[in-house]
Specification:
The chain is of the alpha/beta class. The chain has 13 helices and eleven strands. Strand 7 and strand 8 form a beta hairpin. Helix 6 packs parallel to helix 8 and helix 10 packs parallel to helix 11. The protein starts with 9 loop residues before the first helix and ends in an 11-residue tail after the last helix.
């Protein structure tokens, strides 16, 4: 933003126009935020679209529910500007035809230039892409893809037994005697019972602090799919940050957008700080140790950045590990090249974790669904 009395440049007009477009879409954008956005653009530059996107989202968006509106305005306002092209522009006019069919000839471009047919699969393109680089259209596609996930919980042995036609388990004396009444008291057909199984409870603790802002929305969408998989999974969902909030009821809505909006409205510490040790202590005292985490598969979805004392986090993770069937830690940063769990919170929690997995993409969520419903893996090899 130009100083008082200085001429207004083209970059300033672009910033001011973008702020007006956001206000026209219903976002509250104060003048101070616009000045901060202009300063941020001056530091990160405008040669890459992703840098400008995050500069604007960090300075102009104040509420989680405004992110979708910001994405739409950003796409429509900056689309087609030469400054946002990351790849060199071809000298000859080239028309790109998007084609997801096989063997279909395409006509030439309108200007007579060369026509290149690009065959692509939207699903394959999104599976391994980091959530932090998604556009608004890709977020809508992600919702449909996550809805297709088939989540199952790890089975546990139930107290009740059921009839076993394959004659395994233990003799069922009551049914054997009842059958003998039909044959004059002779037990010609013996009945058997074997232990039945039921799905273990699944507890999801989703970090919604500021450092997880790029991933919390996708992870809550995964939690919504788990809550909606009634019968196959008994799921409880909590958000953690500076406090703990139970959002299972809010995520029970059939509509994913309505469910996530209700969950965001119920969480007071969204995009705030992180006190993992304190929030886990509250979870253990109020819910976990009292019964919710006993024999359950507990999944912590967090990057491990913690402002509290690591000793407190280690103590609460130890309490949780002693009562839970399995503790899984999902860290979106694990997929980063050269990542090592050196953060104090992550280093303190890792010795009490049974499985340490990624959570940055759709493919990572698919693997997480398999981990949740798979057999137990305990020991150091599960943390690699």
């Amino acid at each position: 933003m130009s100083a008082a009395g200085a001429p207004v440049t083209g970059g300033d007009r672009m910033v001011v126009g973008f702020a007006r477009a956001l206000r026209g879409a219903g976002l509250a954008v104060p003048v101070g935020a616009v000045i901060t956005f202009a300063e941020a653009l001056g530091r990160v530059g405008v040669d890459r679209r992703a840098r400008a996107y995050w500069a604007g989202r960090a300075t102009l968006v104040r509420r989680p529910e405004d992110i979708a509106v910001y994405d739409r305005v950003f796409e429509s306002y900056w689309l087609g500007r030469p400054g946002w092209v990351e790849q060199p522009v071809a000298a000859e006019p080239v028309t790109l035809g998007l084609d997801d069919t096989e063997g279909v000839p395409l006509d030439g471009g309108e200007d007579g230039g060369e026509l290149q047919a690009v065959r692509w699969s939207a699903v394959e393109a999104l599976r391994d892409r980091d959530f932090s680089s998604y556009t608004s259209a890709e977020w809508a596609e992600l919702q449909r893809l996550v809805e297709r996930l088939r989540l199952t919980a790890a089975p546990r042995r139930a107290r009740r037994r059921r009839p076993d036609p394959r004659r395994r388990g233990h003799p069922d004396l009551r049914r054997t005697i009842r059958r003998a009444l039909r044959t004059g008291g002779e037990p010609l057909q013996r009945a058997w019972r074997s232990p039945s199984t039921r799905p273990r409870r699944l507890v999801l603790l989703v970090d919604v602090s500021g450092s997880m802002d790029s991933y919390a929305r996708a992870l809550l969408r995964f939690a919504h799919a788990a809550v909606r998989a009634r019968g196959a999974v008994r799921c409880e969902v909590f958000t953690i940050g500076t406090r703990i909030t139970r959002v299972t009821r809010q995520l029970g809505d059939r509509d994913p957008d309505a469910a996530l909006s209700a969950a965001a409205a119920a969480v007071d510490d969204w995009s705030g700080g992180t006190r993992l040790g304190e929030t886990l202590r509250e979870f253990n005292d109020r819910f976990g140790v009292r019964g919710m985490a006993r024999g359950a598969v507990v999944v912590v979805l967090s990057d491990g950045w913690d402002r509290g004392e690591p000793e407190s986090l280690a103590e609460e993770m130890g309490r949780l590990s002693r009562v839970a069937h399995r503790v899984v830690w999902v860290n979106p940063l694990k997929a980063s090249p050269g990542y090592a769990p050196l953060a104090r919170g992550m280093a303190a929690a890792l010795p009490h974790v049974d499985q340490f997995v990624e959570g940055h993409s759709l493919a990572a969520l698919e693997r997480l669904a398999a981990v949740v419903g798979g057999p137990s893996k305990r020991g150091k090899e599960a943390r690699s």
